[in-house]
Automatic annotation (TrEMBL):
Annotated PANTHER family: HISTIDINE BIOSYNTHESIS BIFUNCTIONAL PROTEIN, HISTIDINE BIOSYNTHESIS BIFUNCTIONAL PROTEIN HIS7
Gene3D superfamilies: Phosphoribosyl-AMP cyclohydrolase
Pathway given in the UniProt record: Amino-acid biosynthesis; L-histidine biosynthesis; L-histidine from 5-phospho-alpha-D-ribose 1-diphosphate: step 3/9; Amino-acid biosynthesis; L-histidine biosynthesis; L-histidine from 5-phospho-alpha-D-ribose 1-diphosphate: step 2/9
Gene: hisI
Keywords (A to Z) from UniProt: Amino-acid biosynthesis, Cytoplasm, Histidine biosynthesis, Hydrolase, Magnesium, Metal-binding, Zinc
Localisation: Cytoplasm
Alphabetical list of InterPro entries matching this protein: PRA-CH (IPR026660), PRib_AMP_CycHydrolase_dom (IPR002496), PRib_AMP_CycHydrolase_sf (IPR038019)
Record-annotated Phosphoribosyl-AMP cyclohydrolase domain positions: 44-117
EC number: 3.5.4.19
Zinc as UniProt keyword: yes
CC annotations in GO: cytoplasm
Protein name: Phosphoribosyl-AMP cyclohydrolase
GO molecular function: magnesium ion binding; phosphoribosyl-AMP cyclohydrolase activity; phosphoribosyl-ATP diphosphatase activity; zinc ion binding
Length: 141
């Protein structure tokens, strides 16, 4: 085991072995949780298919599968708020991925640092985190 792990896997055969260990669901997807590598802050959850995971391993930048668009979603390609993958972990069942990332900017499309900004307070869901940037500024709308 090395002191500074690298999620980069440049050898296609090695990536194929890693992909074979993942238990994708019947839709060919696996949940992926992005967590800030140095603080432990949970940033977001998204889906990966085999191509997204392969690209993430090959490039060191988070790539997900967008169910609504039906294709690969390279985090930050339109907003500039990308995720540099520092480490990648597979859970004990092989059916969930944890990405330890360095988040550049905000993670949530609402302009918040994390997608997990709603919490029960006094019997209601309340926003516990304000946007840091407007979605219009993020996406140029």
């Amino acid at each position: 085991m090395t002191d500074t792990p690298s999620p980069l896997v440049t050898d296609p055969a090695a990536r194929a072995r890693i992909l074979a260990a993942v238990r994708f669901d019947m839709r060919g997807l696996v949940p992926a949780i992005a967590q800030q590598h140095d603080t432990g802050e949970v940033l977001m959850m998204a889906w990966m298919n085999e191509a997204a995971l392969d690209e993430t391993l090959a490039t060191g930048r988070a790539c997900y599968y967008s169910r609504s668009r039906g294709g690969l979603w390279r985090k930050g390609e339109t907003s500039g708020q990308h995720q540099e993958v520092r480490d990648l972990r597979l859970d004990c069942d092989g059916d969930t991925i944890l990405l330890l990332v360095h988040q550049h900017g905000v993670a949530c499309h609402t302009g918040r640092r994390s997608c997990f900004y709603l919490a029960p307070r006094e019997g209601e869901l309340s926003e516990i985190m304000a946007p840091l940037i407007s979605p219009e500024r993020l996406y140029g709308a």
